[in-house]
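Problem: given the chain below (331 residues), write out its structure.
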Amino acid sequence: MNSNVQSLKAFLGQTGRVALVEVAATKGSTPREAGAFMLVSASAIFGTIGGGQLEFMAIDKARQLISPLEGEMAAKRPEGVLSGGTTRASSTAAATPPGGSAATLPSRGREARIEVDEVCATLDVPLGPEIGQCCGGRVEVLIRPVDATLEQELIAKAEAEEAHLPHVYLFGGGHVGQALAASLSLLPIHAVVVETRADALEGMPETVETRLTPMPESAVREAPAGSAFAILTHDHALDFLIVAEALKREDAAYVGMIGSKTKKATFKNWFLKSADGSEAEFNRLVSPIGGNAVKDKRPPVIAALATAEIMTALVSHAAEASAAPEKVMAG
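Solution.
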């Protein structure tokens, strides 16, 4: 399993000099929140601060800071272009992107400010039509070279964030399972595919954990609080067993099962009569996963809909969990 921490370490270890580009402050509507960051080397980037002309400007300035040659070239640019000192409106802010046009810094009291010293740069940029973005807010970006101390801080922060990622357990590696695993692999979560068949785990994304076990329901019991469970195995009886186990987890953020109305009704009858389940527990079940608003049963479509559904549930559950202590204190 390849994690984000491993990717970060690989980038820092193989790309030579690197600059950290971090959103230091925001005001109004912006592409990313304060704390969002990206890393920039002479030939590659890791992460994003939201894209668009703002990011292009930041990358350009970052490469000036870490590349002596680029710094020399920047010093020869016309006044107002990204260079040393403080730069204000009415000039081109960065080199023209491929296929694009040069961005002019704003005027009318909303000037972009670029401050540079020997070790870092600060971009304070309004996101308006003057730079080709219409978010309407304002972003302050801090750019600084990554030294050994900062590198360790970035790795430690990434490790801490990874340790607290919400877990999503996907039971079943069939066609929909493969598509859903691929979709989940793109999210800031810890995805685990649980299977009883070894061949069904072949070809899973590198960022997804795989578990081969004859007792998949045991993974439900071992899951951390706030986990999501998506059940779509090759066997309806196995689905029922896993779903019943998941519905007993009152701390689950999401329990979803693939299937039809008939399958759901059959499960309900079994769950209430033979599995000691309750109506309240059954009502927490999402089935079919991804909803039925879109009448399309192709695996990638189901996966896309289910992924959005799961992510929404995780965010909602986390918000409720964060608000709970506040309510207790207020009470």
